[in-house]
């Protein structure tokens, strides 16, 4: 029997802290009473000890076995004689103990003995005042909806003064956003980081990565192991499509997961559910560490918050993971949310008459080009009067940016980079301006962007043309006078010559 209960003690789930188990008392701290110490367990748990077998304890061995105080009459009838039942477990391994624990869990009755508050000296929990016997220790169901809560598999052992070291690892989820490698945040890997900057309507990718720690009992969950990603986009982010879903680096078919996202969904939350991870990924076992990766395409829309100065990035995207957390029944734990940030920029431009104290100039037209001066960045006009890049830059048609009475042609939704503003329509009486080069120099990390010496507030000047003389004006009069004088001089010269001949 001693071998059996040592085996029981090894039955601890990989998904979390101590949840359920059998434990037997080994030494007294008061006359005939014992305790269970649960170490290395996180705060927020209450452990309950149920006596399954009672008897006489000597040197770690229980004799004269009978059913304990927490097994119902129905359970005793269903499972038969206590000593005979214990005999069937003698020499068994942890799997046998796990099977028995599941069986007896259906027949628990009475009031269990609960652990005290989390704290010293154990750094965990203590269940005190136990009499000799075999005990099933369970995690009491938590109140509310706490993060990172996972039930542990049954722990089983003869109870004396026992120390239990439950596993505390839980699933985690991480989110990353992809940027161009040339201007990605410091520390990014292949452009993947916690922040990025993009044009409005430029497609880019988000990546969700869930990690399930190794769990020696995940294969024994009574229900299929399920994971649910919940992704929440701010209003300025638009979902496009799922690019891939992988488990341990291998793609799984779209039929093996369910997504509630719809193409061109702007803002809001959506979920991706793998209802049966083992089947979906064709895994022979779920007990090892498992990585689940979801990559999807998205873009910023015209509702995006555009930075015009150094500050906080306003476009966010976050994810949390819900996962099976109870080996013996339906139950769900969830992770804290992980968040990333996507910046875009607002360039304010004002057209002015430089010869009239920078008075705003209406009716000028402009187009924006990449730094090479030949590739146009095509624009559409927004309802608020700003202009933003269109989605189909290769084949789409952009509009000319025309200044209104206020002289403004503001561009919302630009990426880090160098641009050239070209005047394509010049108001009558003004000279066409020279091409203007502007730069957005952005560095970002997490939710902060530094715009340094960026050209995001530009005055674009026009000068009037030279006021040359017009036909019928003073210039013509001068020519007429000069012409008449020449004719007169020529006439006088001719008359003098004729007189000389006659003489």
From TrEMBL:
Keywords for this protein: Cell wall, Membrane, Peptidoglycan-anchor, Secreted, Signal, Transmembrane, Transmembrane helix
Residue ranges annotated for the Gram-positive cocci surface proteins LPxTG domain, each copy included: 468-503
Gene3D superfamilies: 2.60.40.740, Immunoglobulins
Cleaved signal peptide residues: 1-30
Disordered: annotated span: 170-195
GO terms of biological process kind: carbohydrate metabolic process
InterPro entries associated with the record: Fim_isopep_form_D2_dom (IPR026466), FM1-like (IPR048052), GramPos_pilinBB (IPR032334), Ig-like_fold (IPR013783), LPXTG_anchor (IPR019931), SpaA_PFL_dom_1 (IPR041033)
Coiled-coil regions listed: none
Residues annotated as transmembrane: 478-498
Keyword Signal annotated: yes
Biased composition regions of type Basic and acidic residues, renumbered to the chain: 170-179
Protein name: Cna protein B-type domain-containing protein
Species the sequence originates in: Bifidobacterium anseris
Lineage summary: Bacteria, Bacillati, Actinomycetota, Actinomycetes, Bifidobacteriales
């Amino acid at each position: 029997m001693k071998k059996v209960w040592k085996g029981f003690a090894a039955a601890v789930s990989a998904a979390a802290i101590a949840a359920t188990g059998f434990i037997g008392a080994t030494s007294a701290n008061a006359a005939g009473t014992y305790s269970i110490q649960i170490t290395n367990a996180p705060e927020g748990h209450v452990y309950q000890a149920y006596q399954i077998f009672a008897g006489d304890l000597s040197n770690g061995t229980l004799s004269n076995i009978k059913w304990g105080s927490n097994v119902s009459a129905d359970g005793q009838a269903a499972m038969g004689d206590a000593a005979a039942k214990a005999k069937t477990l003698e020499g068994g391994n942890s799997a046998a103990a796990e099977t028995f624990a599941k069986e007896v869990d259906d027949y628990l009755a009475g009031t269990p003995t609960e652990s005290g508050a989390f704290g010293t000296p154990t750094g965990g929990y203590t269940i005190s005042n136990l009499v000799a016997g075999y005990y099933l220790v369970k995690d009491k169901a938590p109140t509310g909806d706490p993060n990172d809560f996972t039930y542990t598999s049954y722990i089983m052992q003869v109870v004396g003064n026992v120390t239990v070291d439950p596993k505390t690892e839980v699933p985690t989820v991480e989110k990353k956003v992809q940027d161009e490698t040339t201007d990605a945040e410091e520390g990014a890997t292949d452009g993947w980081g916690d922040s990025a900057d993009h044009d409005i309507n430029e497609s880019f990718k988000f990546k969700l990565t869930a990690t399930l720690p190794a769990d020696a009992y995940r294969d024994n969950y009574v229900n299929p192991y399920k994971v649910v990603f919940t992704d929440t986009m701010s209003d300025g982010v638009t979902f496009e499509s799922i690019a891939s879903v992988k488990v341990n680096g291998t793609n799984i078919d779209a039929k093996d997961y369910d997504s509630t996202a719809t193409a061109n969904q702007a803002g809001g939350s959506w979920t991706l559910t793998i209802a049966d991870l083992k089947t979906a990924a064709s895994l022979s076992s779920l007990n090892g560490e498992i990585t689940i990766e979801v990559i999807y395409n998205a873009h910023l829309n015209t509702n995006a918050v555009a930075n015009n100065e150094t500050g906080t990035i306003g476009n966010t995207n976050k994810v949390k993971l819900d996962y099976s957390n109870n080996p013996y029944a339906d139950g769900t734990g969830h992770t804290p949310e992980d968040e990333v940030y996507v910046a875009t920029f607002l360039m304010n431009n004002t057209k002015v008459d430089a010869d009239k104290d920078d008075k705003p100039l209406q009716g000028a037209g402009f187009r924006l080009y990449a730094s090479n001066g030949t590739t146009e960045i095509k624009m559409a006009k927004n309802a608020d009067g700003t202009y933003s890049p269109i989605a189909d830059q290769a084949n789409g048609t952009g509009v000319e940016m025309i200044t209104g009475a206020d002289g403004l042609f503001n561009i919302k939704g630009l990426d880090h980079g160098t641009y050239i503003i070209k005047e394509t329509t010049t108001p009558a009486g003004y000279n066409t301006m020279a091409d203007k080069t502007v730069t957005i120099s952005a560095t970002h990390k997490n939710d902060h962007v530094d715009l340094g010496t960026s050209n995001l507030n530009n005055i674009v000047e026009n000068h009037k043309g030279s006021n040359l003389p017009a036909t019928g004006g003073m210039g013509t009069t001068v020519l007429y006078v000069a012409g008449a004088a020449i004719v007169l001089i020529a006439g006088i010269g001719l008359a003098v010559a004729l007189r000389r001949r006659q003489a």
